[in-house]
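Task card 7
Instruction: Convert sequence to structure tokens.
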Amino acid sequence: MTFPTHILAGLIIGKLTGDYTAALTGSLFMDLDHLISYHQNGILFKPKRILQESLTEKDPWGSQKNIFHSVQAWLIVSLLLVSINAHFGLIFSLAYLVHLILDALNGDVYPFYPYKKFKIQKPIIRYLSKKEAVLGVSMLLIFLVI
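Output:
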């Protein structure tokens, strides 16, 4: 899913829980692995290239959704944060899980990375498609109504 969709998910969870910081952090945290990929491929400080890569459906290097986009990372990070601060950790964990689910809807995800035997390939909602735009508008309306 696109960055705005993840922000909207964080905003909805933040509004429902009363903790925007935990919800937005949880909904965006795992995209740090995109930055790792950008660094490895020499575009980290090239905003035009990053924008170009973020507006394409396919990951040209196959490394933008890796360790932080896995169930294991979600579980480890969630348990660690819950043990430090239960309130923050639970909301962060929920937002993180929603991010993973939204990304799985786009397909091309290894949910148990680095184990690549199981891959969600077929998208239910294509990246940057009309369906994703409808989902985003729907999420915006939900945020405004709740």
